[in-house]
Design a protein that fits this description.
The complex is a heterodimer of chains A (193) and B (160). Chain A contains six helices and five strands, in the order αααααβββββα. Chain A has 193 residues and is α+β, with helices and mostly antiparallel strands. Chain A starts with a helix and ends in an 11-residue tail after the last helix. With 160 residues, chain B is α+β, with helices and mostly antiparallel strands. In chain B, the strands form two sheets. A seven-stranded antiparallel sheet of chain B has the order 1-7-8-5-2-6-9. In chain B, helix 3 packs antiparallel against helix 4. Classes of the chains: A alpha+beta (193), B alpha+beta (160). Chains A and B meet through helix 4, strand 1, strand 2 and strand 4 of A and strand 3, strand 4, helix 1 and helix 4 of B.
């Protein structure tokens, strides 16, 4: 298995720049139609700033994906990943006490994806303090991550073995350690490795 | 003043689930089609900075709505409890949901993890949310417990 550092070394700058340009264009197209909808729906003066913050947050997450890994993520998976970002950070019923996605925590998730090689894009959520929640589900087998800044991850797995549910979780101080502790569950069907 | 009373084990409660606490399957156009799981944060008490700044202290109990406070058949009581929440707290769209939980089942799961919780009806007499109730003495961190609660929450999920 390639290490995280080896993957980073293979990062192709020019390809990433092209794809970053694509990600930005793609984001602008999506956001323009959303903003037209918003103009029709919301007229209160406070909401545009929330809308702008969410737009910036979505753009930043896509920029991070482009910088780190976009050329290493399959287009189908990338599109689903971006759709989850757009859906999650949408102004519809965004509470005033909700925190935006922590960009440093998001970097942890992107680096995990780069190394774990998931078969599908994760389902995304947000913790109360802005950490990124990500899950992969294959029938009764589920892995959930709470990605925090600096490659720290709280992880939780629930799997069915011989008809019985097994639950296990912990906190990994590095991605290398996380990949090692979840390795015994590699037959659960979430990742390619 | 609130008259606090224990909710019977046979009764049901609703926990409002924000979209960020749910895993949603999306279609190709990015529209939500199915809830695949709940994140543990659905049952975690809030201790984050934003919450403390707004409310002055960490969250002490988990807010829920008591379904059987209302009259009518089961479906009607659920509809009334949702309306009670919606009418006063906020509006909800199709990206959010309610988890219907049996009180006895929640207490049993918590007991299995050595957490002696109480589920009480504590709506203030002046409150407009008549069915407001609370789960008290929930542990701050217990992933195994939260995962079991998420599992029964998913079985009883109600999309609005």
């Amino acid at each position: 298995m390639r290490t995280f550092h080896q993957n980073i070394k293979t990062f192709d700058q020019s390809a990433a720049e092209n794809l970053f340009s694509w990600a930005t264009r793609n984001h602008e197209q999506i956001s323009t139609s959303e903003e037209q909808e918003t103009t029709k729906t919301f007229l209160t003066p406070e909401l545009p700033s929330v809308e702008q913050q969410l737009w910036d947050n979505r753009a930043k997450l896509k920029e991070i994906t482009a910088q780190y890994a976009i050329c290493l993520i399959e287009p189908k998976l990338r599109n689903k990943f971006f759709a989850q970002i757009d859906w999650l950070l949408n102004s519809e019923h965004w509470d005033e006490d909700d925190r935006l996605a922590d960009t440093e925590a998001f970097k942890t998730l992107v680096k995990f994806i780069l190394n774990a090689k998931p078969i599908n894009a994760p389902y995304l959520g947000l913790s109360d303090n802005g950490n990124i929640l990500a899950s992969w589900i294959n029938n009764d087998n589920k892995i959930s991550l709470e990605c925090m800044p600096n490659n720290n991850v709280k992880w939780f797995i629930s799997c069915v073995f011989s008809g019985k549910k097994e639950r296990v979780g912990g906190e990994a101080p590095s991605l290398e350690r996380l990949l090692a502790v979840i390795r015994p569950f590699q037959n659960a069907g979430w990742f390619k490795y | 003043m609130a008259k606090i009373s224990n909710i019977p084990d046979t009764d049901s409660i609703l926990r409002f689930a924000k979209k960020r606490h749910l895993s949603w399957e999306l279609d190709e156009a990015g529209n939500p089609i199915e809830i695949k799981s709940c994140y543990h944060d659905l049952f975690k008490l809030r201790t984050d900075e934003e919450f403390i700044k707004k409310h002055g202290a960490p969250e002490k109990a988990l807010s829920v709505n008591w379904v059987d406070f209302f009259t009518g058949d089961h479906e009607q009581r659920i509809a009334k409890a949702i309306a009670d929440f919606l009418g006063t707290a906020r509006t909800v769209n199709k990206k959010e949901a309610f988890a219907k939980l049996n009180v006895g089942e929640v207490k049993k799961i918590c007991e299995n993890h050595s957490a002696k919780i109480r589920i009480v009806h504590d709506a203030k007499t002046t409150s407009t949310i008549k069915s407001h109730s609370s789960i008290t003495q929930l542990p701050q961190e217990n992933s195994l417990l939260f995962d079991e609660l998420c599992e029964i929450a998913l079985k009883g999920i109600i999309k609005v």
